[in-house]
Prior knowledge:
The structure holds 3 protein chains of 3 kinds. By secondary structure, chain B is α/β, with parallel strands linked by helices. In chain B, 38% of the residues lie in helices and 25% in strands. Chain C is built from 7 helices and 9 strands; from the N terminus they run βββαββαβαααβαβαβ.
Amino acid sequence: MTDYNFAYLDEQTKRMIRRAILKGLAIPGYQVPFASREMPMPYGWGTGGVQVSAAVLTPEDTFKVIDQGADDTTNAVSIRRFFEKTAGVAVTEATTEASVIQTRHRIPEQSLRDDQILVYQVPIPEPLRFLEPSEVETRKMHSLEEYGLMHVKLYEDISQHGAIATSYAYPVKVEGRYVMDPSPIPKFDNPKLEMAGIQLFGAGREQRIYAIPPYTQVVSLDFEDYPFEASKADCACDLCGATDSYLDELIVDDEGGRMFMCSDTDYCANRRAAGHVGAQGVPAQGDAA
Amino acid sequence: MTPLLQVTDIAKFYGHRIGCKDVSFDLYPGEVMGIVGESGSGKSTLLNCLAGHLTPDQGQVNFDTRTDGLRDTVTMSEPERRMLSRTDWAFVHQHARDGLRMNVSAGGNVGERLMAVGARHYGDIRDSATDWLGRVEISADRVDDRPTAFSGGMQQRLQIARNLVTGPRLVFMDEPTGGLDVSVQARLLDLLRGLVREMNLSAIIVTHDLAVVRLLADRLMVMKDGHVVETGLTDQVLDDPQHGYTQLLVSSVLQV
Amino acid sequence: MINVENVSKSFTLHNQGAAVIPVMAEANLQVAAGECVALVGASGAGKSTLMRMIYGNYLAASGRIMIGDVDVAQAEPREILQLRRHVLGYVSQFLRVVPRVSTLDVVAEPLLATGTDRDAAHARAKTLLANLNIPERLWALSPTTFSGGEQQRVNIARGFAYDYPAMLLDEPTASLDAANREVVLQMIEAAKARGAAIIGIFHDDAARARVCDKEIDVTGFTPQAAA
C-alpha cells in the first residue's frame, strides 16, 4: 500500500459522494449536485467517474476500465493504474470478472450481473442544455416534467436529416419520470440501459451524479412515426465475425482500405479465443491478450 | 357572460417605488384591450403581473379556466400557471428573439408548444406547423429555416404562429409592432385583427402607439406613474379624453 | 328607437388652464323606427358633437341617450361595442381603416363581425360597391389611396353593409356627383322603408328635404351660460 488514503479521496468526501449516489438511486435519472473535488487529472478525462468509482470501491473489488470499449487506451490504462496504486484493488480486463467497471462512452457487450456496478464518465449531464442555456430553467423543467423541448431537438433532427440523426448521447426517459442523458454512449447501447447491474453516472466538472437502479425502465425518446432504432454499422467484425456487437471503423492504409472491428476489446478477444474468425482475422493462438 | 379575466386591485412595488397600483378590470371573451402610457408608466409591469412573469404584491388575477372556472393565477401552483401559459395563454414579445428559439427551425418553433402538450407524431406536428406558417403568411418552403434567416416582420409573424398554434384564448402582447417599419406594421396589424376575429381571441396589448390601439383595441386603459388614469371605449378615450394626461398624450401625437 | 333626454356636454381642457367649455345643454331628441331626423344649425352649433355622443364616441356629461334599451351615456364599453355591432351604424365623413386591407374586406367587415359567413359577406359587399359605382378593378386595393369621393362611397357601403336598426349619417352625400348622390338617397330611403331610425346631417338642402321627416335645430341646445 501507499501513503494515499484508500482510493485517493478522504473518507468524508467518499461519504458525501455515497450520499449523492444513494439519493440518485432513490430518484432514478435525477441529477444530484455534489461537491466535486479536484482530481489529479484534467477535467474531461473522467474526473466524475473516478470520484464515483473511488466512493464505491472496496478492497475486495476487482476493477476494470474501458474507454470506447477498449481496455488498452491511455485513458483506461491511466485510471486503472490510478486505482491499482491508490486502492490496491485487483484489476482485470475481463468483463465477467470485474465487480466495478468504469466506462467512457460504451456499455460492455456482455450482459452485466446484479453484483456488478457500471460507472459512467459524463461530460455534460443536462440533456436539455443545448436548447435551454439557463440552468435555473432546465431544473424547473425537470421538476415540472416539461420535456416538450427534448422532442424539439429530435424534430429538428428529422427535419434536417430525414431521420433522427442523434447517434450518441441519445436522450432517455427513466422510469417514466426524468429525462436523462445516458452520457455519449452510441444509441446502439441504449437498450442495454435496462440491466441487472447498478449504473452510476458522474460528471466532475458539472458536479452532478445520477443513477439507474437495476431493472429500471429506460425508454429512448422518439416519435410515433419515427420510432427509436438502435443502429450500428451494417457489417460483421473483421476480427471475430460478430454481427451483434458495436463496431469501430478503422482506416488501415492510404488507399482507403478499412476494417470494422468490435469496439469492446474483451468481447472480441473472448470470441476469437472461442474460435470465431472474421473476414480479415487470423485464428487465435491461445493468447487472448 | 363570465369575464375571461377578472383583475382585482393589482399592485406591484419595486422597493418604495410603485410599479403599478390599484388596477382592476374585467376582460370578456373576444375583447381586445389596449394599455397605453409613456415609458415607465407601469404598463409593462402590469402586463407581466397579469401574464404570471412577475408576482404582484397584492391583488388577484382570476382567469376563467376550461376545467375549473375562475381561478386566481397569482396563487395557483407554478405547474398549473406554466401549463396555462403553454395552452390557454400566449405572450407576444416586442423583440421576436425573446419569444423565439433562434437556433431552432421555424417548424420546430411552432411545433414546440404542440410537443409541450404531448404531441408525438412528427408528421402531424409538421403539418400543423406548416399550416400555421401559411396563416401568418410565411411560405411553406421556409419551414426548415431558422428565424435568424428571417426579416424582423417575419420573425414577429413566426412568434405569433408559435403562440397561437395551441389555440389560446388570451393573448398578451408587449409592443407587438414596435421596431418594425410602418408597412410591415400595417400587415401585422391586419393579420392580428383577422386572427382575433376568427379565433375569438381576447387580447391585452401594451403599446405607446395610439394608432395601433385605435385599429386593434376595443377598449383602452391609460396609465401614468403606475396608476390607471382613464379607461373607456378606445375611440371615446382618444377622441374625447377626460383626463389631463390623456389629453396631453393624444395632442402629442404627430400628425402625418 | 333613439331617445335623447336632457343631454349636456362640456369639454375640460386640462392643459389650457383647465378651461371648461360647455357646448351643449338640455338636448332632447326622439327618432322612431322608419323615421329620419335631420340635425341642422350653423357650423359649430354642435351637430357632430351630438351625433358623436349618440354613437358613444363622445362622453355625455349628463342625461340619457337610449338606443333601444341601452343607455349609451351609462353603458360599459363592451355594451356599446355590442350596440355598434348589431344595432347602431355610423357613416362618418372620414374613412379609418388598416392600410393594406382590400376595399372588399373593408366593406365586408361589419358583416364578418356579426358572424356572417365570408362568402355571403363578400357577395353583399360586391353588390354595394357595384351600386355605388366603385370600379371593380379597385375592389382588391386598399381604399387609403382612393380619391375623396371614392373613399366616401366606400365608407357608405361599409355603413350600409349590415341592416342596422338605427343609423347615424354624417354628411353622406357631400362630395358625391349627382348619380352617386341619387344612389345614396335611395339607400337611405330603403333603410327607412325597412324600419331603420336615422339621424342625419345634410348640408344638401334638397337631399334633406327629400329623405328627412323632421329637422331639429341644435342651436336650441346651446348652453345659455356660454360666453
